[in-house]
User: Fold these one by one.
Assistant:
Number 1:
Amino acid sequence: MQTAAALRPCPAHPLLPARPLRVSSSSAAVPARCGAVAARGLGLGARLLPVSPDRERTTGGASQRQVACGAAAGDAAKAGEESGGLLKTLQLGAAFGLWYLFNIYFNIYNKQVLKVFPYPINITLIQFTVGSAVAAFMWATGILKRPKISGAQLFAILPLAVVHTLGNLFTNMSLGKVAVSFTHTIKAMEPFFSVLLSALFLGELPTIWVVLSLLPIVGGVGLASLTEASFNWAGFWSAMASNLTFQSRNVLSKKLMVKKDKEESLDNINLFSIITVMSFFILAPVTFFTEGVKITPTFLQSAGLNVQQVLTRSLLAALCFHAYQQVSYMILAVVSPVTHSVGNCVKRVVVIVTSVLFFKTPVSPINSLGTAIALAGVFAYSQLKRIKPKPKTA
């Protein structure tokens, strides 16, 4: 039943005919209609809508708006997360790209210098000198937090620095004797030495799958060695010694680097920087008493070499050497060891291919096959290493 108020014209506009409307019993309907008509008179274009007797519909509309706003906020948050995830992926991809790029340039410049300047101890000392200078600069400027290290920690790090020094020295000796591609093919045998030394000194027995993955690595390196045009025993054994020393460093780091509760733990970049500085002090006297300091303008000029070219390339090689190892440790801090191992395998493929193209290294089909088999074995090893043996039940 309609009320009398619904039939009464608006007092502000007596000439307008009143239209019967369906309204609630509340007397607020009259000022509502009058306000709507007044608004239309002012040109605001407001329209009077019939009032529903069921207020739950209005309340339900508000709830629907709240739900819609919440869903929109959720979609915006999800889009923000996806954008952040994409940015992290792009940053990680850029880090891998820099890792590969610095490694490629290190091998190219290093090989160019070693071909005309056959003094690998001098070259290695230059690399440790530049690396130490970069580390000192980063500590001095605050780019890298200066570590608080105790005498006990330095004593524990010393064996790591010794094998790190030997590993890089043997690598440079091999690069000076054989092709870059062949050195990196031999260095693909690192997993073999890792499994062997871990079993002997840490008691970590590999799974049968890991052992099987070593077969193509050893077989592929052997096949590549038989058909390598630049093969010589000095280069071969130097690369093998590099594998042994680098994997010894990894074993020693697990066995000796026991952190005490009261001592501040070292992050990977600081640890690498400290090892680099210690390697400089280890190798400097060795250089003086063996080869002598040959990397000087006077000696280079007397040897008939381009002084500026040799020194510039030696400096660039040293910078790339330190940069690619720094980036490698940065990547290892944000990805799993297995992902890092796979990335290292891909890096070796990239270095081998680019060095063959740059230096126009003669490669036979059998040599390529052996290299491919060895690298495939390394990739399989990095994947199978995740498989843990099931614990024996009593």
Number 2:
Amino acid sequence: MPDDVIMEVQNHQASWMSNWFKWCPTSMELLREAEKRILENLTTLGAGKYVELSCIPDMEKESSQVWTLRANTGSPNTPLLLLHGFGSGSALWCLNIDALAAHRPVYAMDILGFGRSSRPKFHSDAIHAEKQFISSIEGWREALGLEKFILLGHSFGGFLAASYAIKYPDRVAHLVLADPWGFPERPLDVDERYNLPLWAKALGTVAQYFNPLSILRLAGPLGPGILQKARPDMTKKFAGLLPNADEAIPSYLYHCNAQTPSGESAFHSLMSGFGWAKFPMFHRLDALQQEVPITLIYGSRSWVDRDPGFQIKYSRQNSYVDVQILQGAGHHVYADRADRFNTLVNKIGKHVDSGTLPDLPSAEPYSSSARDTGAFSVNDTLNKFINVRHDTVQGRIDADDSDDDDDDVLKEKSNQSS
């Protein structure tokens, strides 16, 4: 029997969901098959691999395994590590892997507690749980012997990528944050300020008291149908690659999330309402070394607040920070505008390989002498931030794919900033 199947059988046997199998029609074997259906059309993927981790602090299991997709690992160029978002798995990078692996080694891991990776019990304290996630990523790096890599995280994966870069800056050649979760403070007037989609509001309500996706497991055999009807938008993103996307994507997501909710429980301990973190990342990036370059990629239609990206760009005057907005894309920016997204990431990778940085749009930051002497007013500070935001938006939105509604949103948010 193949090692990956043995690992999954062991994980499944250790799962409390084993006793619920007749109620929840899922297993690690079914997840494996669902993943296979999504990835079978890719041309660059090598064999997936379980990466054995050493003991993680405060975690009951002595060792854990992280499921890892690999492509073009023989390339001498700087590797790229992809971290998926909450409730997802590495197979959802299927629109990106071939294009990105054409130029460098690409690794896509199922974050510990999600997908096909082990599902140990995390600490209930937010700080401890986050440290465990970060320790698992570093343990994964050590096990593979990678010295330095481009780190790209989407949503919750972006939050973890930023946290990892703060602790291990020498390992990160470029930090790419795709519509990252958990950066801004949770505002008091959430409903008035944000037009959150209905599914996000529902998850937010449930998540105050339970794990966000608990209803999926409580629904038992109805779970797959509920997911398929609740998120038809997810299947449309992948229809170009998968002729059976309307069945394959919901099936994969269901089996990712109907297992033991290990990572989900840890995410619940980290969050303050579904859309915000207890310890927002924006306030913590001051601890990130100035030498680490950052690119933030947002979808123009996403529910994620992109203002923190512009604030980061303004506040890190001595660092490279680029903010990209992909027109017409939502939260899953990597899939909604896959070609444009892949082009951006490949451009970053090319510069990393050559030891350079991509060009930034022209924007006049305040001078270092003014900053050091405190010789600037509050109005100057606000104007500088607004100018940086305006110049970046104008320089990065694709003119060929313009949309009047999104322009109105940008104008409205710029007015709010001023």
